[in-house]
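Researcher: Re-running this chain for the archive, since the previous output was lost when a drive failed. Same request as before.
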Amino acid sequence: MGVVDGETVLGAAEAYRVALGDRLAAAYALGSLAHGGFSPLVSDIDLGLVLSDPLLPGDADTIQTLADTEKSKGSALHQRLSVFWGTPSTLQGEQRGGRFPALDRLDLIENGRLLAGTDEARNGLSRPRAGELLVTGAEFALDNLAGVRRQVAPPTQGLGSLRPAGEDAVEEIRAPELLVAHGVRRLTKLVLFPVRFLFTAATGRVGTNDAAVAHYLNDGEAPSTTLVAAALAWRTAPPTDDGATAELLREQIVPLYLHYIDDHITRLTSLGEIELTSAFQEWRDRLLR
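Model: Regenerated structure tokens:
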């Protein structure tokens, strides 16, 4: 296969062009391969597809089958491919369907790097509202980080895959040695996801790791700044002392999560999101139990 890098995996855009033909209006690199900060150690490969209307019944199966084929090519980076897709009408919320959550639609608008087709595909797209971004991030956090059962089915989310089968992030947060043992990719995601969500909630912008960490460190009242700064550095230079890393986590990761959860309880309450607020309160209780 030769050397595999992020751009190699984005070559999947050509496979979609062949399979979809004229229906593929555009393909975009999203995430860190579009806005910068890509790390082969920990980053996901995010590909966005805009198909022409109307949405067809077989579109979901076609896109999933090709994604599975790409992921089976053997490299760790191929396995991290996430494909987001929709048509102009689904991206505008005029019709249901596709897979392009609010946070990823915002990334498409702000940072999408054209790989194929024409950039007209995203012209005129409306930015997701602040409340939609907050709710999308909160749902992702509950479904992947909180271990809290909700009464509604979890939405299809972006931001990459976070939770290995059978794992409970709350237990990892409360048992730092376990989190360290699961590797630097999971370690940095568990520390930096709440930082990114706080950034988006405060600014309405995509929470890139660099921007989110800078924003967090500039908050004079934010806790756990040593851990947050270390996690950003670990994305390119993993920690070498597992004991010291676990001790830093033991001291600072729970305060980081309590800070994030309390911030979002206030924000979700103001939006009248009663179910999500209750789930965040339950999550807080689990962390302190």
